Amino acid sequence: MALAAGLPSLAAAALFDSPEPATTARTSADRVAPRADGTDTPRGSAAGATDGRRTGARAGTTEQPRDANRDAKQAKRDAKKDPCAEADKACAEALALAHDDDLASIDLDIRVRGKAGNDYPCECRLEGQSFEPRRFASTTMTWKATGVCHKPLYFEDWNLERYGHSYGCLADPFVSAAHFFVTLPVLPYKAGVELPWECVYPLGYYRPGSCAPWTCPAPPISPRGFAVQAATVTGLVFLLP
User: Fold this and answer.
1) How much is the pTM?
2) Per-residue pLDDT tens for 52-96?
3) Cα–Cα distance between 23 and 21 in angstroms, integer?
4) Nearest 5°: phi and psi at 180?
5) Which residues contact 192 (CB under 8 A, 6 or more apart)?
6) Helix, strand, or coil here: 120?
7) What is the rounded CA–CA span in Å between residue 77 and residue 179?
8) Helix, strand or coil for residue 9?
9) How far is CA 58 from CA 18, 45, 51, 53, in A?
10) Are strands 32-34 and 40-42 parallel, antiparallel or unpaired?
11) Fewest Cβ atoms nearer than 10 Å: which of 82, 105, 174, 186?
12) Pick from 164, 172, 169: nearest CA to 209
């Protein structure tokens, strides 16, 4: 009888000491959260929304470097396909700026603007001093023509040999050959103008390095040259059969 009487009390104590209702209540309280308008909202959904916003923010943050890397890779591919793409783009921009520039945009004001020391050098003014010219020593310079001379150059080509005027590497040999064969028949006349034993001075020519024009020397007129030429031709007529 005592054992039977104690069983209901033990069952009642076990019923009141059981943590399942509290756990169930806490779980239900965690799942339900009050809203501002008085309705209940599951807390799990609010937490999920918050986590979703955080994940979206992280995704947006990571998407920017990915887009930059993707653009850089695409730019590298384009540069490999067309190495002149960037140069063409810069050239187009420069041409656009040049086309937009006109006379109306030119400023005739030449005043220096800005801050001294930053935009232009500081001015060092010489004030409180009188100008003194340099005191050079007086010098006297005299020039005397050199005594260098040479024998007559009957086959000389002034333009080519003295001044360097050329007809081109292909035409110069033919021009020089023509000059030689044209000068050969009148060689007695040139020998009469300048005798073979006379000294010829190189005065009257342009100096080396000067911008000499293309000249066409006129043949000199000399009675002695005519006489020597006539005597040579007459002698050849009688000597040759």
Assistant:
1) 0.39
2) 455 444 544 555 667 777 877 777 776 666 777 778 888 888 888
3) 5
4) -65, -50
5) 222, 224, 225, 226, 227, 228, 229
6) strand
7) 65
8) helix
9) 44, 20, 11, 9
10) antiparallel
11) 105
12) 164
